Amino acid sequence: MNHRRFPMIAAISAVACAAMAFLPGQATPATKKPKRPPVAAAEPEKPWPLPQPWQVDRFTLDNGMRVLVHTDRSAPLVAVGLMVDVGSRDEAQGQSGLAHFFEHMMFQGSKHSGKMEHMRALEGQGADLNANTSADRTWYYQVVPRPALELALWLEADRFANLVIDAANVENQRQTVMEELRERIENRPLVRSHLELVANVYASWAMGHPTIGSIEDLNRAPVLAFALFWHRWYTPNNCVLVLSGDIDVGAARPLVERTLGLVQRRADIRRQAVQEPAPTGHAGATLYDKLARTPAVHLAWKVPAHPDPDAYALDLLAEVLGSGDSSRLEKRLVRQGGLAAGYSAGTHGRRDHDLFQVYVELAEAGPAAIAETKRRIREEILDIAANGVTPEELRRAQIAFEAGWVRAAESPARRAELLAMFEVYHGDADKLRQVLPRYRAVNSAGVQRVARGWLTWDREVELEVLPSGATATPVGAKPDWIRRAERGIADAEARRVAAQLRAKEEAQRKAAEAVPPPAEPTPVALPPQATDGAK
């Protein structure tokens, strides 16, 4: 989860001033102070109920496409989502941007539908539709009125079976994507730094290059490269279809079978696992941004991805650091000294190998402000590594994730995306049932452990983003104060482990003492010895 706070204006109005008259112990001269009510006895806190996961029916078409159906009769709408198990990490080096390219290309016409007709036909029925691409998957969705469901499925089937990939369409969308790259990245301050950071964190090209690709690669790619990419990855056996809304599996199955069920299956996908080595030490870099007016700072660490147990604790740690007015970054970077104009903290939600990032846009320039900002971020992380988080911080973070679940439940498109993502990433959409219980099971010690184990200086990647002409801050060796803090954390951990061992040995000793000694055997009376009376 990514969190952002831009305190552009502190809006303290006359309403806030008037509210001061109602604080305890305050009264206007003309008003008698009311008698304070008796303090009620505090009730023991009860655990809040977990939202229920979504019930899903499933079947697989003859062509290998997996289909999930989630029924929700609250509105006469159906989200139709198709997730293709391909992202930028599946691209060949020198052909970056092809996965994202098809996010656009799939709307450019097919055998039975003209250019942009897919979008126009569904929007004419009142639908909302779009697509997006990440390093790990490509997602197409449309939320349609129930009567338009079959039309949406037919249009999906037509473009998945009969997409027109010719020189005219490829060149048109090549120019569109390159214009998007210039508009969204090249011509906006500080945006390029986020891509640069990812490239510095990940060692492999597959994980580190930008999903949008490069202008050079897009210009170089022939039409045949686009056609081969589509033919390899856009096969039904590499897709998951989700229908979420006013539909049940009995009604859905015949509709899907006579539309997407007719798309021909192609070869099974064979992909190599991405090899991503562990960090070998602290790394730092500087990026000059001619559009930036003030500096920015990135600190990042490569961390485990879901469903690794540590991923849940890292998400909560990010929430404590950077979400809301009570977050630690708000207190240290905004309220105390006004160092930050904006900040964020969070994981990227990557598959297999994730990234934990703290990002700060500084309020003022200068090496001293940059150094102090980085110091305060590291101090907070080291404090969590030494002491964990408070019960209040942990509870707020857990509630925030549950609130996100509730918000997702209100959106048919978001429900469909989560179901598809768990089916594609983890092989089973029903694993969504495990998510909230796992967040709830995290305790302060768990957050402390992941801070201590993953967010260390020796695993950190830092990136300074500077306006043109500014002076870079040398990375240098590990600061002595960090060495001392880490040594204190290690010593405290060693004492904790030793105390646990002593407690275990003491418990074993007491248990052994509590066992009564074995009873003495009862003597057995033997019969008189027989004598031989023979003479």
Structural class designation: alpha+beta
Q: Distance between termini? A: 105 Å
Strand order of the largest sheet: 1-10-11-9-12-8
Task: Return Rg in Å.
Answer: 31 Å
The dominant shape is globular
- Helical residue percent? 40-55%
What is the CATH homology-level superfamily of the largest domain?
Metalloenzyme, LuxS/M16 peptidase-like
| Main sheet attributes: strand count, strand direction, barrel closure | 6 strands, mixed
> How many β-strand stretches?
12
Query: Into how many domains do the coordinates divide?
Result: 2
Strand content is 15-25%
Q: What is the CATH fold-level name of the largest domain?
A: Cytochrome Bc1 Complex, Chain A, domain 1
H-E string: EHEEEHHEEHHHHHHEHEEHHEEHHHHHEH
Number of helices: 18
* Overall average pLDDT: 87
What is the highest CATH level, the class of the largest domain?
Alpha Beta
Enumerate the spans where pLDDT stays under 50 for 5 or more consecutive residues. 1-45
What is the CATH architecture annotation of the largest domain? 2-Layer Sandwich
